[in-house]
Amino acid sequence: MGKRVLILSAAMGAGHDAVAGELARRIAPWGVEVCVVDVLDLVPLRLGHGLRRMYGAMLRGAPWLYEWIYQVFFVAPRPPPASPLTVLIARGLERRAAELPPDAVVSTFHVAAQAAGWMRLRGRLEVPSLVLVTDFAAHRMWVHPGNDRYLCPDEASARAVAERTGCPVARVAPVVRPGFRRADDGGRLRRAVGARPGERIVLISAGAWGIGGVAETARGLAASGRYFPVVLCGRNRRLLARVREGGAGHALGWRDDMPGLMSGAYALVDNAAGQTCREAFACGLPVVSYRPIPGHGRDGAEAMARAGLSALARSPAELLDVLDGLGDERARRARERRVDALFDAARADHVIRAALG
After folding, report:
1. Do residues 144 and 89 lie in contact, with contact meaning Cβ atoms separated by under 8 Å?
2. 121 confidence band (pLDDT: 50, 70, 90)
3. What H or E segment, with its residue span, contains residue 346?
4. How far apart are CA 94 and CA 100, in angstroms?
5. What strands, in cross-sheet order, belong to the sheet with 287-290?
6. Whose CA is closest to 311, among 293, 290, 327, 329?
7. Which residues have a Cβ under 8 Å from the Cβ of 206 and sit 6 or more positions away?
8. Backbone phi, then psi, for 150, in 5-degree steps?
């Protein structure tokens, strides 16, 4: 009988699912059965879906509340005990594992890592539990000593996780679709937005949910006369309409051809430090973090900037200065070396395969 891998994700935005889906695509040719599970679906009474809606509402309308939650539960020096949500997910995961017993569990979402570690520590999960950390800032919710192995995106996060858990840690390359690593002529983006030859197109990412003050960012770039802003509105139709009606620049809804779009851009301005940044790194597109969302978005942006992978602008004037400076040849080569080092690490799917034995 073949092996089975259970990948745990969560549709909190699109990044965790994108990683889980690409891992599943890579693992399937081995003859391994892959099951991808949204851990929020394991919570009874659709409470997980309510949590997802509440999280989105906080980011849109009460970011201060999410910041408070982040400080108390995600980065507090003395963390609270396992949350009721973790226990509920663990119980649902135990039932799922009994129905389709896996040979390994891989978490791509932090609460999934908590639930799998909680089960493993109590002997309720008998197979290896691996955690693929998708944040450059590996906050406390990613780490649980019950997990067997951690896969981290860079040396800084790997050291932090090893110190907190004592678990084996491997540094792995970002998990992105292979299309992002292939060059394109860049014409697709110009045709999509109607930019003239020579105009420097700046993509402004608002994530899958279209969150943040990206319309204001676009207006500032357009007013400078030096850049052609294109707002990636994700699935937020209201944002799409607002940008188009407000003359703040061009706007695009959800797109599946991001590799081609990114290859035609001058830079990416991002506010979440998530999967879109990894995809930009793979394309060789410079990343500038600006007005990051609170909590993990801000900490991730700062971590990427410390590692020299991206820049962090803190004001409209600084954003323009940073974009203007992207043409500096020495700085560009240094940034490219650091980004290339990310992708020179081991592949996450290879580490998972080794864990299967």
Report:
1. no
2. very high
3. none
4. 10
5. 250-252, 228-232, 201-205, 267-270, 287-290, 311-313
6. 290
7. 212, 214, 231, 232, 233, 234, 236, 239, 271
8. -115, 140
Distance (Å, whole) CA 97 – CA 115: 13
Tally Cβ neighbours within 10 Å of residue 313: 20
> What pTM was computed for the model?
0.93
What tens digit of pLDDT does each residue of 44-71 get?
Answer: 888 888 989 999 899 888 999 999 989 9
**What secondary structure, in 3-state letters, does 226-258 show?**
CCEEEEECCCCHHHHHHHHHHCCCEEECCCCCH
Closest CA relative to residue 311, chosen from 263, 245, 259, 267: 267
Residues 6+ apart with CB under 8 A from 294: 59, 63, 64, 66, 67, 70
Q: Give the separation between CA 208 and CA 99, rounded to whole angstroms.
A: 32
Can you read off the two tokens belonging to residue 293? 């969302």
Strand order in the sheet with 104-107: 33-38, 4-9, 104-107, 129-132, 149-152, 169-171
- Residue 29, CA atoms < 13 Å, CB-side half-sphere: 6
> In this structure, what are the phi and psi dihedrals at residue 167, rounded to the nearest 5 degrees?
-85, 155
Pick from 147-151, 207-211, 260-264 the range whose average pLDDT is largest: 147-151
The sign of the torsion formed by the CA atoms of 169, 175, 178, 183 equals: negative
pLDDT at 149 over 90: yes
pLDDT in tens, 216-254: 999 999 999 999 999 999 999 999 998 888 776 799 999
pLDDT range class, residue 184, cuts 50, 70, 90: low
First-to-last CA distance in the chain? 14
pLDDT digits (tens, 9 = 90+) for 278-328: 999 999 999 999 999 999 999 999 999 999 999 999 999 999 999 999 988
Going 143 to 118 to 48 to 150, the CA torsion angle's sign is positive
Helix (H, G, I), strand (E, B) or coil at 24: helix
